[in-house]
TrEMBL record:
Coiled coil, from the record: none
Name of the featured protein: NCS1 family nucleobase:cation symporter-1
Keywords carried by this UniProt record: Membrane, Transmembrane, Transmembrane helix
Transmembrane segments: 57-78, 85-106, 174-194, 206-223, 243-265, 286-310, 330-355, 367-387, 393-419, 440-461, 481-500
NCBIfam families from the UniProt entry: ncs1
Keyword rRNA-binding carried by entry: no
Lineage: Bacteria, Bacillati, Actinomycetota, Actinomycetes, Kitasatosporales
Gene3D superfamilies: Hydantoin permease
Family statement drawn from the similarity comment of this UniProt entry: Belongs to the purine-cytosine permease (2.A.39) family.
Species annotation: Streptomyces actinomycinicus
Length: 508
């Protein structure tokens, strides 16, 4: 098979509707073979039903969660004041919204999930590279969020049962009852995902407002403890607005972008159910930056209040809620944490890797099997270690994730928007020997761009506490800008390699 397909290959077996959406032509048999299964096939236009509200609710549910809370509160813990923390997070979410909308476009238009979308640029087989990278990142996130949910169950049960639960014998540094709580929350999530995407949509719709109310309750409680709302605003920055702040700002900004860089890749997994481009565009624009900024504002005020009340910032909301003597208030706060964690973890960290793992072996791995693989791997990455320190959590974990996934985003945007002008052949995305087969199913240009961009983005970063030192010390000046370096490098290099080798002639 030649590396590039012949030019001007007519698209067959698909129709373009009046609103610009594309689906398989009526009467056309769905793609089959080793690269297709029911979960990966295009969603028919009639079943693309998600509205602007559904997408906004999805984002409210995903943004209003404990990990989002700790993003902002973690910035307070490392020295920023509330204005600096909110500014950093608001800017990061406006930036990440751009690739989110660009990659999300393919979902409503073609009804395809992220791993199938990636076949256009990486090749039918090569798409497994970004899909598995994205899936492994999701495993890490799923583990972290599951640990947070287990922690909430642990504290909740401790208040109800007493010291026999809270002070149980320790295993591996934690009470055995904490490990049991972790396992219980793990099982709850797997049970929900097994009921399918429609169950997830309904869950997100009611979870979103519930969690937002819970955050305001936390704010009211902390302002009361601190002696008024004013005390929450007057906690000073330990950095000022000079060099100390800006030295921390850039890696923090990249970390905040890295938090949603996962979704900026696999957002087609959700937008493929969109009723229109307008629904996904407005839903995401209204849902992501506004709710993340509001939630950041609430969390930094509460964390500033904890600094005023307890003498030090308590960045973990579960630990903070456990300090109250009001049993009813504690129960409400911890139930809110549970709902929030379920909301984001299932939508952001279980749906997408389930599709990604299914893409590796479509005939053998279904969506549900992929979800189970994700849940198992999430335990094996030791999430309690990743979450134990805000410094490592924000700068190491989120920085590395953002750098690698920004590299993939650059390739997807370059291929779909700049080379193909958003035109894809649905049938060929599932076919060996078609225009997306390249050489043996792999597009070497995308692989080279990914490797080079990835090395530049994260090669100079500190991997502590995971490992000591930096893999490529000479690249350390780029480490604070990992996401931007990865995205920009891969986008430019992929375009250059494609144009120089004549690969652009395959663009449809």
């Amino acid at each position: 098979m030649t590396d590039t397909a012949p030019t001007a290959i007519p698209m067959s077996g698909q129709v373009t509707l009046n609103d610009g959406r594309v689906e398989l032509a009526p009467g056309t048999p769905p793609p089959s073979g080793p690269y297709a299964n029911e979960d990966l096939l295009p969603v028919p236009a009639a079943k693309r039903t998600w509205t602007t509200y559904n997408f906004s609710a999805l984002w409210v549910g995903m943004a209003h969660n404990t990990a989002s809370w700790t993003l902002a509160s973690g910035l307070i813990a490392v020295g920023m004041d509330w204005k600096q923390a909110v500014f950093t997070i608001a800017l990061a979410n406006l930036i990440v919204l751009v690739p989110m909308l660009l990659t999300g476009h393919a979902g409503p238009k073609y009804g395809i999930p992220f791993p199938v979308f990636a076949r256009a640029s990486f090749g039918v087989r090569g798409a497994n590279l970004p899909a598995v990278v994205r899936a492994l990142v999701a495993c890490g996130w799923f583990g972290i969020q599951t640990w947070i949910g287990g922690e909430a169950i642990y504290f909740l049960a401790g208040k109800l049962i007493g010291d026999s639960w809270s002070n149980a014998a320790h295993i591996g540094g934690y009470a055995w009852t904490m490990w049991l709580s972790f396992a219980i929350f793990w099982v709850i999530q797997v049970a929900i995902i097994y009921r399918g995407m429609e169950t997830i949509r309904r869950f997100e719709n009611w979870a979103a407002p519930f969690v937002l109310v819970g955050a305001f309750v936390m704010l009211w409680w902390m302002s009361d403890k601190a002696g008024g709302v004013g005390r929450l605003f007057d906690q000073p920055s330990r950095l000022g607005w000079g060099g100390g702040f800006w030295k921390l700002f850039w890696p923090s900004l990249m970390g905040m972008i890295g938090f949603w860089s996962t979704l900026s890749l696999n957002i087609p997994d959700f937008t493929r159910y969109g009723r229109s481009q307008r629904a996904q565009t407005w839903g995401q624009a209204l849902g992501l930056p506004t709710t993340m900024t509001l939630f950041a504002f609430l969390s930094v005020l509460v964390t500033s209040g904890s600094q005023a009340v307890y003498g030090r910032p308590v960045w973990d909301p579960v630990q903070l809620a456990a300090k109250t003597d009001n049993v009813v208030g504690l129960l409400y706060a911890l139930v809110t944490v549970l709902v929030a964690t379920l909301s984001v973890n299932i939508a952001a960290n279980l749906v997408s890797p389930a599709f990604d793992f299914s893409n590796v072996a479509p005939r053998k791995v279904s969506f549900r099997t992929g979800a189970l693989i994700t849940a198992v791997l999430a335990v094996l990455i030791f999430p309690w270690k990743l979450y134990s320190d805000p410094q490592g959590y924000i700068f190491t974990w989120l920085g590395l994730v953002g750098g690698l996934l920004g590299t993939v985003a650059g390739i997807l945007v370059a291929d779909y928007w700049l080379l193909r002008r958003t035109r894809l052949d649905l049938a060929d995305l599932y076919r060996a020997g078609g225009r997306y087969w390249y050489a043996g199913g792999w597009n070497w240009r995308a692989v080279v761009a990914f490797l080079v961009g990835g090395v530049l983005a994260v090669g100079g970063a500190s991997f502590e506490p995971l490992i000591d030192g930096r893999p490529v010390p000479a690249l350390s000046p780029l480490a604070d800008y990992g996401w931007a370096v990865g995205l920009g490098t891969s986008l430019v290099l992929y375009l250059a390699l494609t144009l120089a080798s004549g690969g652009h002639r395959r663009a449809v």
